[in-house]
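Annex B, item 7. Sequence and structure tokens for protein A, then protein B.
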Amino acid sequence: MSATIPSEPVRAALSISGRRLSYLDFGGPGPLVLALHGHFGEGRTFAHLARRLAPDWRVVALDQRGHGYSDQPSDFSRAGYVADAAAVLHHLDAGPAVVLGHSLGGVNAYELAARHPRLVRALVIEDIGAEVEGDLSFCLAWPHRAPTRSALVEALGGSAAYLSDAMREYGDGWGLAFRPEGMVASQRNLNGSHWQAWLGSDCPALLVRGSRSSVLSADHAQEMAAKRPATRLVELPTGHTVHATDPEGFAAAVRTFLSGLAEGRPRGARRPFPR
């Protein structure tokens, strides 16, 4: 009997200390893949990947704090992001999950594996390093509201192509589903060295780099793969947003990696990680 997969994902949410945390559940009978987007994004960015992995894998894509349909947090700390992801996994009660993350979500994914190894079966990290240095202050110039969607697109200029999922109609006009000042604060908290977290787990990992990426250099990606056991590096001919620029290539790389995962319980962390 073939499994029934919903034609559209189901939006659901949980409450953490009165704050809404929203996610898309693409359904299916397979083991869980928790997908974490990057800055300015939301869970819907992984819709194509979810379709390509079904029905063998069930993708749940979180709108991380301050993004999409999730509420604004009091802070954008690493501990806060990781606690949110762990809360979703506990809420779903679907066993150890593969955790996939792009950019911001990639750091959150491998930090989660280091802090909560029993929750993570394997990692897929998309185009982010163990050392991060970025500046999102340019987004502070984006308009708070515009009278129409087309006016918002025009005001955003070249950035509009990357923000289509985040555009919303509000009572006072069109705007974005995040606060730019929150994104700036989140990036500042993301900057720095994360080597301890990257090396703090030993579950299987796939590191995907865009060969034209300005965020993750070839040398740094190779160093990350060489230093961490059970890590495979794949490069695709894209920039930073690999899953969006080459959706078929990205999905194929992820599917190949997932098909090779050994059955059984994941290994735990190789060394204690500060909580």
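Protein B:
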Amino acid sequence: MSDTIYALSSGALPAGVAVIRVSGPFTSEVLLKLCGSLPLPRQAKLRSIRNRNGDVLDQGLVLYFNAPASFTGEDCAELQVHGGRAVVNAILAELDVIPGLRHAEAGEFSRRAFQNGKLDLVEIEGLVDLISAETEMQRRLAQEHSSGHLSKIYDGWARRLTHARAMIEAELDFADEDDVPGSVAEKIWADMRALKGEISDHLDGAGIAEIIRDGLKIVIAGEPNAGKSSLLNHLAQRDIAIVTDIAGTTRDILSIDLSLAGFRVQLFDTAGLRNTDDKVEQEGIRRARLTIDQADIVLLLADTPDGFVSLGVSQLAEKPIIRVGTKIDRSRLLWDKATVDVLISTQTSEGIDRLLDILADHLPDLSGQNALSLPTRKRHMSCLQQTLAAIDMSLAQSNRGLDIQAEYLRQAGDSLGRITGRVDVEDLLGVIFSEFCIGK
């Protein structure tokens, strides 16, 4: 924390503009050496950036943020320069020889923001997700977290737990005082039961958050030559899988990521399901069945009306199955509407929009939900489950005394505090900040 750190904070080079960030106690000295003067805080100034010999390296905008009103909570600066490799490398080389400076590690700027109380862990993780967001729903979920909305919910719950403990302690220690409210059971436990219900409802949203963050896993399955790889290529709008008339062409798992109604969708192409003596194809079929077991939805393809029957649909997976009749451009077979959900042709695109509409029906319904304050990570859910269990134990120990109940509420508060980083999270910090890129 005593070092002054620097790094390229913008994207890959070359670029139109490159942003070099500096943070630490020597920031003002760095600007004086490179630019000859210190700009007023939060005012962009055009400056020539020079090396120690006075040679101009580049000309760009310079911003200075004095502590504590900065991202990291300490003196910070940004050099917005031309994004050529030679320009950036020259400036970084000049920073490297200034005493007291070193190159930042991955996530170190954000870690300093956390350690200086500018951001909590939920907001930090939201920044990670915001940087890596690929779909509109991922962006909305990450924005909700990085802006502190989810943290406010957890902080509110923590305050209620603290208030409950304070009232219990007051009744235990000062029961004979007139200004101390009596009967904690009437005033506190009703709120704790309500809090238990709120946390439980909050945890119910974890499934939606997982789909938003990690994507809906959709597996394309069926007999060989049913049109699985053709459908994958059509939806990807490029040739991902090899398509031939030879049965067993696809032998490994292929996948693509799509955006469907703002949600991330992972689409998997699998080997054709059939009995075969080919060892390699057998391994492909084994992997296909494993992938089907992990799927959220199975697209079961057949190019003939009796194709679904031969596969034994009920044995494939106990999860939503969409039966897709394929290659309808080749022949107009009599499909039984009771056995098929949609008919498609990848050659003419007939039925593809209908298939996408059916898939969209399986996405979470967020209508009427203005905020996405949902738990997204396993550590969030684990801490919330521990909090819930501790509150439940406190409520169940009414016959053992208020001191025992207060201890369980303390444990609940500690579990809740670990989510935002208020309590005992030192061992988590290395894992969390390692997810960041250099310069953030």
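Comment on protein B: DSSP finds 16 helices and twelve strands in the chain.
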